Amino acid sequence: MKRILITGAAGQIGTELASRLRDRYGPAMILPTDIRDPAAWASLGPAEQLDCLDLEALREVVRRFGPTDIFHLAAILSAAAEENPLRAYQINMDGLVNVLQVAAETGCRVFTPSSIAAFGPETPRDPAPQSTLQRPTTMYGVTKVAGELLCDYYHARFGVDARGLRFPGLISYTAPPGGGTTDYAVDIFHAALDQGRYTCFLKPDTRMDMMYMPDAIRAIIELMEAPAASLVHRNAFNVTAMHFTPAELADAIRDHVPGFEIDYDPDPLRQAIADSWPERLDDSEAREQWGWRHEYELADMVADMFRGLRAHMAQAAVGAAGR
Ligand code: AKB
Questions:
Q1: Looking at the annotation, which residues are catalytic?
Q2: 3-state secondary structure at position 30
Q3: Ligand 1 midpoint to CA 57 (Å)
């Protein structure tokens, strides 16, 4: 029977993952935690405040809840990490090593996401192979490569079953991302509905890998349920779904918001980060080792984003009228 502790549960992945895990394993089996007060983010069931930099607090929650698995999502994303690299290093590295240490002490399994950011400008761009040169030039990327190695180390040294995926940009409508270089691909939908126009912080031809959140959540669950014997890599699997530029996304949005306009005001920091990442990941190892298949292509994702966002807006309007 699974009991899953989630860290960083109020974030973009955590919000949707917690709800899917509750449906799958039962609400009592899932404990979402976040450094933010649950009063501000947790409406669907029990949740707690937890700073995973506090090793004793983490040990105490694990002792009390008794998880079989820890899904460690607390992290600072790429652009935010460049604003305060030392803080990003502390949160991304110390948080992960604390989780791995507690997992080694208690026998928990661990999931933690890596990223396309674990690659750098010297990595082959299209596609980036599963095993290749990794020399990232961002603090976020440095922590992602080091995190992959830490997971391997805790597996080899202490037998921790630590698994992970290298995600591309993730697109969703439930909770906003925040501090990422790929965030434009979420912001653009809100701007399209609110203003019919968007100013993009990347150049029109910046091609990046992306994935729709339902595929990302399914990838996490499938990897964690895959038999260990079928995994050659275990941790840091390349996974991807679609690859597009801001100009191509704007075209797809015009099918739903006729007359949508986009202009470009590239932010040097985020443009440099995007330019340092590969355009596409080769995810054939994930497809072979545990049967990874994406479902959403660009047009399906765009249609579903507008359906979801319009439903959210309608619900919010009903809520506001009832107050
Ligand atoms: C970011 O943009 O920092 C993240 C990522 C690609 O890991 N979305």
A1: 140
A2: strand
A3: 28
Which residue type sits at 305? M
Inter-residue contact 200 to 262 (CB < 8 Å): yes
Residue 269 is predicted with a pLDDT of 97
Distance from the alpha carbon of residue 139 to the mean position of ligand 1, in angstroms? 12
**Angstrom distance (rounded) from CA 211 to CA 90:** 28
Specify the pLDDT at position 94.
98
Between CA 5 and CA 28 the distance in angstroms is: 11
By CB atoms closer than 10 A (0-12, 13-18, 19+), residue 249 is buried
Index of the ligand 1 atom closest to the CA of residue 168: 6
Query: Which are the contacts of 156, defined by CB distance < 8 A and separation ≥ 6?
Result: none
* pLDDT at residue number 45: 80
Question: Which tokens go with 199?
Answer: 């100013």
pLDDT along the chain (323 residues), means of 10: 96 95 95 93 86 98 98 97 97 98 98 98 97 97 98 98 98 90 97 97 98 98 96 93 98 97 98 97 97 98 97 81 72
Mutate to test the pocket of ligand 1, among 13, 83, 112, 116 (most ligand atoms within 8 A of CB): 116
The answer to whether 167 and 231 have CB atoms below 8 angstroms apart is no
Vertex 22: Cα angle to 20 and 27 (nearest 5) = 170
* Nearest Cα residue to atom 7 of ligand 1: 115
* Cα angle: 215, vertex 148, 160; to 5 degrees: 95
C-alpha 119 – ligand 1 centre gap (Å): 12
Atom of ligand 1 nearest to the CA of 144: 7
